[in-house]
């Protein structure tokens, strides 16, 4: 099992930026990919971005493409989510997740991930 701890959330004005971090510990040698999801009040959790741990390939939800960037630091077992041009609609609890098994699929749904962090709140004011 991999333990994940998110940080970097907070309150920001529309148009501003935040960088989220997710530090992994435990069985990190078996990491295949990591992803970010978010859940707004009254809504289901939705996919934001994912990154292949070794190759660094990325994939984004259309709603954040061009504004958010996912990256990773293998030496620190940490994945980042740089969020620019934030909008009130980006307000949500942001979760990171890890998939430990190889996959040929694009990892955009919750059930494809094995372990989850507790989440960090991002609030964007208008």
Description:
The chain is mainly beta. Helices cover about 0% and strands about 50% of the residues. The protein has no helices and 11 strands. The strands form 2 sheets. Strands 2, 4, 5, 6, 9, 10 and 11 form a 7-stranded mixed β-sheet that branches. A 4-stranded antiparallel β-sheet has the order 1-3-8-7, with no helix packed on it. It is globular.
List the helices and strands and how they pair.
Elements: E1 2-7, E2 10-13, E3 18-26, E4 33-39, E5 46-52, E6 58-60, E7 68-73, E8 78-83, E9 92-99, E10 115-116, E11 120-125
Largest sheet: 7 strands, mixed
User: Distance between the terminal alpha carbons, to the nearest Å?
Assistant: 39 Å
**Rg over CA atoms:** 14 Å
How would you describe the shape?
A: globular
| SS-derived structural category | mainly beta
| Global mean pLDDT | 95
Outline of this structure?
By secondary structure, the chain is mainly β. The protein is 0% helix and 51% strand.
Question: What are the defining features of this structure?
Answer:
126 residues; mainly beta; 7-stranded mixed beta sheet; 4-stranded antiparallel beta sheet
